[in-house]
Amino acid sequence: MSNSEAARTAALNGAVEGGRWVRITGLTSVAGQILNGKVGQVLNTTPNEDGRLQVKIDGDTSSGKLIKEANITDVPRNELVKTCRLSARGEGSVLEHKVLLFPKDYSMFTNCNPKGDSPVMARCGLPLAVKQVNPYKDLSDFGATDNQRATYLMIDPITGFAPYQWQTKVGPVLVYRPDGLDLNFYDMVCVNTYFFEIIDLYAREPGAYDPMKWVNPTYFQRIVRRERDQFNWILNII
Fold first, then answer.
1. Residue in 17, 26, 16, 70 with CA at minimum distance from that of residue 47
2. Is the pTM here over 0.85, yes or no?
């Protein structure tokens, strides 16, 4: 498999960026016992001379802890959740979004608003959290930080406008379900398609329409079913 094919497969099916996910176990010191059970990412593939790996632990603000291989276990695939990273315009990604894997008990799932961050999707019965993340490359060029799909996710259900901070210089974002359920590649395609369709409806004369006619679970699911049936996609959001 070529690098491009591998990248596409990872984008569609899920990949772990920054190192494999592990769980800390068996530490006996007072400080170490606090870390037992926590998840983290292994940041280096080769242990140091003491047989320790650098692990970035969820919730820890340091650059990582040095932990022996005997005290980490890989998080099983069935405990990893699919999320979607939406690229910024200047990242030049072949695919506009890709799937990244995170442990189900990662803090971003357990500490977020259960209603998510997208006002429209909350009303559609699919709460989605939207988190700005670091870019893959420099985005200093004009317009490079634009992310139209992220902006759409944050629009007001009544006006169709996103808050100012979500209109410009948005950058890449991670989109995920607060309940820790999968959001796969084609789920995100359906969500994007829904927004592309309804955004034009807001262009009508103000007061001449009722946005609640299209910001509701029935309307959203109708579009999702249409996309699923047309392309025979396997979805998690229906």
1. 70
2. yes
Widest pairwise Cα distance in the chain: 71
Q: Cα separations (Å) of 24 from 30, 42, 66, 220?
A: 14, 11, 11, 41
Calculate Rg over the CA atoms of the chain.
20
Pairwise CA distance, residues 119 & 128, whole Å? 9
| pLDDT for position 96 | 84
Report d(CA 151, CA 200) in Å as an integer: 14
CA dihedral 27→15→234→220, nearest 10 degrees, is: 90
Positions of the chain with pLDDT under 50: none
Structure tokens that stand for 110 in this block:
């357990």
Tokens of 232: 């025979």
